[in-house]
Amino acid sequence: MPSTTRTTPRRGLLAAALPLLIGALASCGYGSDATKEEPADKKAPAAADGKKLSASEVRIGYFPNLTHATALIGVQDGLIQKELGATTLKPQTFNAGPSEIEALNGGSLDIGFIGPSPSINAYVKSKGKNLRIVSGSASGGVKLVVNPDKIKTLDDLKGKKIATPQKGNTQDVALLNWISEKGWKVDPESGKGDVSVVRTDNKVTPDAFKSGSIDGAWVPEPTASKLVSQGGSVLLDETTLWPDKKFVITNIIVSQKFLAEHPDVVEAVLKGTVKTNEWINANPDKAKESANAALKSLSGKALDAKVIDPAWPSIAITNDPLAATLKTQSEWAVKAGLIKQPDLAGIYDLTLLNKVLKATGQPEVSDAGLGVK
């Protein structure tokens, strides 16, 4: 499928895997401009291109993670706000997909950066009524890191304890599928079997690895590089399991209500994310510094160079949602017995994204047949 990702020698295009996927955008174009002068306190705000926008504010959620670099940099450096003009960007950070989805469903969040698994789960549970995926954001950045004293080859995983972030999340599904492909058996609910799949929060995983209570972990960055800094060894990069070494790890979702009422604001946000991604891919070293500065601002602590330096180039920043890989991830979850066959028709609406890409001379991206009709 066409991709808008621009790579540099330091940044391989990896596809990101994680929590299940999201829904797509439903309408396009700017709202009608007011035909009469409104009171100053109620006047519609103007975007960067001078057009008036239909909302005074937009609430955007994301994680303080490297795989959410588009949001980290786009918010911190004002690239998204610039496209919104007088519409105020109100950022919110979350630590997990379920809490972000809850905020979106509860009406306290309009747009979010999130992984595929929570997106898919939320879309299916709402019978396709709560969100749509409107753009991609990142790919790759997931690795199997092991204790090299205990595990030297992939076959050595049998009988070992391997951590994933959460039952049914993107990395958990990928590991269960890999185990199945090896011909080994694991109960998807308990994680017990030929390999013990230990569901462990990414914040806890480094300590668990250091103490020896787990033998390895199938995790996203920067957790993977943190384990390497503790003496771990990368045994497998998940990108090697995917065609073209691409798979979705972060998408941009939007509340269907907000999309229907404020398509112009969503379009302005996408203009900002597309420009942010273009800058990131053209300036990888500066972008790494900016992302780390944002992490320090949000968490109070920047990532150590020995963690961020190997982690950063393994994440590919892209506008392409890599929809075909989301479909594959959902099939893996079904195969593992974690979910029933989902109906993902309409989870994507890439109308506004493709409009923005066309205007900037970039190729359109595909919804893999899962877009709104």
Query: Based on DSSP secondary structure assignment, what is the total number of beta strands?
Result: 11
- The amount of helix comes to 25-40%
Count up the helices: 13
For this structure, the quaternary state is: single chain
Mean of pLDDT: 88
Strand content: 15-25%
Described by the principal axes of the CA atoms, the overall outline is: globular
Name the features.
disordered N terminus; 373 residues; 6-stranded mixed beta sheet
Walk me through what this model shows.
The chain has 13 helices and 11 strands. With 373 residues, it is α/β, with parallel strands linked by helices. Strand 6 (161-164), helix 5 (170-181) and strand 7 (196-199) form a beta-alpha-beta unit. Helix 7 packs across helix 11.
Summarize the structure.
With 373 residues, the protein is an alpha/beta fold. It contains 13 helices and 11 strands.
Reconstruct the topology from this structure.
Elements: E1 57-62, H1 69-76, H2 79-84, E2 88-93, H3 97-106, E3 111-114, H4 116-125, E4 131-140, E5 142-146, E6 161-164, H5 170-181, E7 196-199, H6 205-211, E8 216-220, H7 223-229, E9 233-237, E10 248-255, H8 256-261, H9 263-282, H10 284-299, H11 305-311, E11 315-317, H12 323-336, H13 351-359
Parallel strand pairs: 1-2, 1-3, 6-7, 6-8
Antiparallel strand pairs: 3-10, 4-10, 4-11, 5-8, 5-9
Helix pairs in contact: 1-9, 1-10, 5-12, 7-11, 9-10, 9-13
